[in-house]
Specification:
By secondary structure, the chain is an alpha/beta fold. The protein has 11 helices and 8 strands. It starts with a helix and ends with a helix.
Length: about 260
């Protein structure tokens, strides 16, 4: 058994920890932990590369589902000849809440995006693979409350991204908590229905019948990572070739999208 498989099996045991109170919070910092990756660029070289020197093709903001498989995902983009892909994926990442784990600062997705934008990063496309840790930490009691809270989190992140680039958001596939995952995905679907910036990468629908793609209830194994990478690449290629028409954020549009 390799080290990676041992880590993932250890994670599977952590998923059995109590979800209540401090135990749940501590478990959440551990369960969605496999690897941490600082922002890195696919296709970087000593010579300028189109899509990097000018404007990145895409920034992928994720949690450990992306971080653990970043080499495989990066290879999928290279194999299809897509340069200028920036990964910023970190263990235990949530959408809104930043935490500290093992003396390491775990930035929220919102904080990561804000920092990249402050550093002048302006991609043609944002890919967001977040929500699993928010599902684990609880979206509330009852489906209506869960959908409403998830919708609020999604809107806050999209406000941080701003109106200048499309967003592709990966649906959640947390096999231990299917009802909560579905509530989060329903919030994604509702936002995408009214927001022309948004496209869904439906990892949940793609993987729900493939238990053999998972090393534990959350994390893909090598086979699953290959399937996820294909979804990433296909979506990025499609949106770069035919980007959606972005709305002018005038007052009436801002109010409809919850941006006012």
């Amino acid at each position: 058994m390799g080290n990676g498989e041992k880590q993932l099996r250890h994670q599977h045991s952590l998923l059995r920890l109590n979800r209540g109170g401090l135990g749940r919070r501590f478990a959440s910092w551990l369960v969605i932990v496999v690897a941490t990756a600082a922002a890195s660029i696919v296709g970087a070289s000593s010579a300028p590369v189109a899509g990097i020197a000018d404007r990145p093709n895409a920034v992928i903001i994720g949690d450990s589902i992306t971080a653990f498989h970043e080499p495989a995902l990066a290879a999928a983009f290279r194999d299809r000849g897509i340069p200028g892909i920036i990964f910023d994926a970190q263990q235990a990442r949530q959408i809104e809440a930043s935490v500290t784990y093992a003396d390491e600062s775990i930035r929220s997705g919102i904080s990561a995006i804000a920092q990249l934008k402050n550093n002048g990063v302006d991609p043609k496309l944002w890919v967001i693979e977040l929500g699993t840790n928010d599902v684990w930490n609880s979206l509330g009691e009852g489906r209506d409350e869960q959908v409403a809270y998830a919708y609020k989190l999604i809107g806050q992140l999209l406000d941080t991204v701003g109106p200048s680039a499309p967003v592709a958001w990966v649906t959640v596939s947390f096999r231990m908590y299917p009802l909560e995952s579905d509530a989060f995905n329903e919030a994604l679907r509702r936002r995408a229905a009214i927001d022309p910036r948004m496209t869904l990468i439906d990892w949940h629908a793609h993987s729900v019948t493939h238990a053999d793609w998972f090393a534990d209830p959350v994390h893909p194994n090598e086979l699953g990572a290959k399937a996820l990478g294909q979804l990433y690449v296909d979506t990025v290629l499609e949106l770069l070739a035919s980007p959606p028409e972005l709305p002018c954020v005038c007052p009436q549009h801002a109010e409809r999208l919850g941006m006012s």
